[in-house]
Amino acid sequence: MTEVQFHFDLMCPWAYQTSKWIREARAERNIVVTWRFFSLEEGTRQEGEKHPWERPWSYGWSLLRVAAWLRRETDGNDAVDRFYDVAGRMFHEEGVGVHTPDGAQAVLRELGRDPGLLREAIGDESTNDDVRAEHQRAVDMGIYGVPTLVIDDADILFGPVITPAPTGPAAGRLWDAVLAWTEFPHLYEMQRPKVEADRKHIEADFAPYAVARGWSTESR
Prior knowledge:
By secondary structure, the chain is an alpha+beta fold.
């Protein structure tokens, strides 16, 4: 059995595709996935800007607070898995703006939960503490973005960065390739250049996300 800590920010379309892949891969291989928080808003914050926990509502950070509350108060890691799965599908595939309070309540309804739980999650300051502590832990490990995998508490890998997510046996083969990478601790980077056809492919895959996010940068 291989244990994977999957660091995500729900706002990232690349992390969402990788999350779809890791769910497929765990069905093909003996993998246990633990979902961990990482805030792109905090990670890209500029000097003088408010921290996300200093705002009444803060897009991806607030969604992580809901996930933190569900993890603690309901079904643990499984609750985060389902929340990310549903919210990610709505945001990145259906173009629903789940990063607003109304959108977050829509996710809770889709999960069969009381949308009033949003008020409890955001009203509980300890959910800020939970997300902040998990984000800082990731930063202290050297993690700088998402998707990032921590494999068996030993190997930290950014990626794989892929769209669309492989399914079935292909997902298993990609997992085998990721594990092969861990055999070479000083193999730091390998990247495929993006040509115009790649840019068009990515734009088409991420079109619902571009509509749903409603702003021109990813630093909110």
